[in-house]
Amino acid sequence: MNTKPLKAYEVREDFDGYVCIVFATNSATARREGAAELDADWESIDYCRRLPWADEYAGVKGGVPPLVCIEHGWWFKCMQCDCHIDSDLEGEDEQGNYVKLEPVEEGRAIYCSQSCKDKRDNEKSNRNLAFEAFKKSVQEKRPDLTFTEFTGGWPWLTMEGRFTFTGSKYGGSARDQHGDGNIQWFIANGDKAAWDEYEAKREGGAAC
C-alpha cells in the first residue's frame, strides 16, 4: 500500500505568536496537529505553511534541531538565561558587553553556551538529588505509613509523597512545597477522624 510522505509545516498561533513544526501528509492535518501542540484551537491558527527545508527530519526523534532552524532564520531563547539566539550568534553578558555566542543544543533545547548548559544540568541534578533525599526522609520519619506514590524531581519544585494508613479511605500526603526541606503533612478531609484515631493508637502518640 502506498503511503504519502510526511512533509514539514510551520504552524503559527495567532494570540501569542508561538510557532511549531509538525509533519503531516497535508496542510489540514498539519494545522490540526499544530493547534494541538500549541494548545490552541483551529480558528486561533494564524497560518500553516510548507517548510520544504525541514522535510528531511520527518520521523527523526526530536524533530528539527534548533541549530538547523536558526540557519533558516528562526530564533530561540537560551533555556537557562533567556538570551536571544539567532543566526548572528551575538549577545550580551550580564554587564552588557558584547559576546560571541557558541550555542549548544540538546534535543529540542538550546543554550547560548556550554556554561549555561552546565548550569542547567547542575540544577537538574540537584533537584533530582533533593527529591531522592525527600523520599528517604519522609519514609524514615514515618515508617508506619504506606507511601503509594511520589512526585517531584526536575522540573518540579514541589515534592510530594502520598500515603495511606490503617483505617484510611483517602490517605494523605507529605509535601515540600518550595524545595527548601520544610516538610508539611496533610490529611484528606474525609480521613480526619480516622487519622486522629490512628495517631492516638500509635505508640508514643507522636503526631506529624
TrEMBL record:
Highest rank taxon of the organism: Bacteria
Q: What is this protein called?
A: Uncharacterized protein
Species source reads Shewanella mangrovisoli
